[in-house]
User: Which sequence fits this backbone?
């Protein structure tokens, strides 16, 4: 029962229903106003024309009527021969004598006292047979003349117009409802189809999309936008699934290594205690790798969330990051930092950008090499450049190094510990601040990472 009521309510809220109801309402109002106007004008026109007829008769009687009963009779017979059925005249002479224009007139005037008034038109009277008459009276030479003009034809005409109006109104309502219903069904039909398709849609099936209707334009636009959103969502989903697979894979390797060495100690620790220190150092190394990996994964997860920004001294952040890493650095370092460069953002983000780039330069450059860190502002942009004289990155690998978990030639970097996440974090962070990062070669040997931020706060 409740469900029925909800479906009924839902039906009432559909565009089709609302459009039909409103359109029919409008149609009925328009037809009614038009009918009332036509009826009103016709009634007034007919009333005025009858009034004119009565005035004409009155004028002609005033001009031609005499004092005597005979004279009156003559005049009335003359008038009566022309329009005996149209006019009924009653003359009461001062002598008390009464003259009628015809036998009909006599009958009607005998009932005169019982005649009723028609609504607001006090000049229209009804007989018991419900025949309408226009009423007028005047005095002439002591005689009281009363006129009745038959209005039956006029009332017939009004009746016919009234019936026609009712008929047209009904026809408009029926036809109008059918046409509007069909029309609005066509309009909202594409929305209904769209709703059904969305309900049936399987997001993981990349081939499924919404059908784009030719009309109406609005629904066509919504369908296109929906398909674009769907596409973006699918790319995002795929990326997330890939990320979970890669992350589990990366986590499994160090865990397997740790478990292997724990088992080795358990099995042979007692009989061959010399394996213990080597295994422990492996466990230490692998658990450290795990710790770094988990930290970076957590950082990656946090990147999608909202963050508060504040005004930051970027020059200071870069300098402090280098100072922190300098202790572990074996290479020579050249620092060229312009002071007083400010940005709007979060300290952690800029720290991560600088730390990952400088750490990579340290990892992939031999101890005798040189690392250069430059920060300066030019033409409203901020440039952070980290250069090294290390092993370099082959051209075909340059685009891939920013992908999550990607490491250039695993055999080459197997000696160097790493997760393959660092540069993807850097790229995401840089893009978060509408900046860009490019990687180029340093001749004769080495790599150069240039980060550009477009805005600068003074
Ligand atoms: P990783 O933890 O492996 O360093 P990154 O995402 O930071 O992960 O880097 C991805 C890959 O890019 C590295 O494995 C390395 O092969 C390459 N790479 C990054 N920085 C440098 C660099 N300064 N010189 C040479 N190769 C680099």
Assistant:
């Amino acid at each position: 029962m409740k469900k029925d009521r909800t479906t009924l309510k839902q039906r009432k809220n559909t565009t089709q229903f609302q459009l039909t109801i409103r359109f029919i309402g409008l149609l009925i109002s328009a037809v009614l106003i038009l009918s009332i106007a036509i009826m009103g004008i016709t009634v007034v026109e007919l009333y005025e024309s009858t009034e004119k007829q009565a005035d004409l008769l009155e004028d002609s009687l005033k001009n031609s009527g005499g004092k005597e009963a005979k004279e009156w009779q003559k005049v009335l017979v003359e008038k009566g021969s022309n329009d005996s059925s149209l006019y009924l005249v009653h003359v009461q002479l001062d002598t008390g004598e009464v003259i009628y224009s015809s036998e009909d007139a006599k009958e009607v005037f005998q009932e005169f006292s019982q005649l009723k008034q028609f609504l607001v038109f006090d000049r229209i009277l009804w007989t018991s047979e419900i025949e309408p008459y226009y009423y007028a009276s005047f005095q002439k030479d002591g005689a009281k003349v009363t006129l009745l003009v038959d209005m039956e034809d006029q009332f017939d005409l009004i009746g016919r117009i009234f019936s026609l109006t009712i008929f047209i109104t009904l026809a408009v309502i029926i036809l109008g409802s059918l046409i509007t219903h069909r029309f609005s069904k066509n309009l909202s039909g594409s929305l209904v189809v769209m709703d059904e398709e969305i309900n049936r849609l399987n997001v993981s099936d990349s081939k499924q999309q919404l059908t784009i209707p030719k009309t109406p334009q609005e629904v066509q636009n919504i369908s296109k936008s929906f398909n674009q959103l769907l596409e973006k969502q699918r790319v995002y989903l795929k990326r997330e699934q890939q990320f979970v697979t890669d992350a589990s894979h990366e986590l499994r390797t160090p865990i397997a290594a740790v478990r292997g060495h724990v088992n080795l100690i358990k099995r042979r620790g007692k009989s061959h205690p010399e394996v213990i220190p080597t295994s422990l150092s492996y466990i230490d190394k692998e658990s450290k790798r795990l710790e770094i990996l988990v930290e970076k994964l957590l950082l990656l997860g946090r990147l999608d969330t909202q963050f508060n920004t504040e005004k930051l001294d970027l020059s200071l952040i870069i300098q402090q990051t280098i100072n922190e890493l300098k202790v572990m650095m074996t290479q020579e370092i050249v620092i060229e930092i312009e002071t007083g460069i400010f940005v709007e953002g979060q300290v952690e983000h800029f720290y991560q950008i600088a730390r990952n780039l400088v750490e990579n330069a340290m990892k992939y450059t031999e101890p005798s090499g040189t690392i250069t860190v430059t920060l300066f502002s030019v033409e409203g942009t901020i440039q952070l450049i980290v250069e090294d004289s290390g092993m370099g990155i082959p051209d075909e690998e340059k685009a891939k190094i920013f992908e999550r978990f990607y490491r250039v030639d695993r055999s080459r970097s197997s000696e160097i510990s790493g997760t393959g996440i660092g540069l993807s974090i850097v790229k995401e962070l840089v893009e978060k601040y509408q900046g860009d990062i490019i990687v180029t070669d340093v001749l004769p040997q080495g790599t150069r990472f240039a980060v550009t931020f477009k805005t600068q706060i003074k």
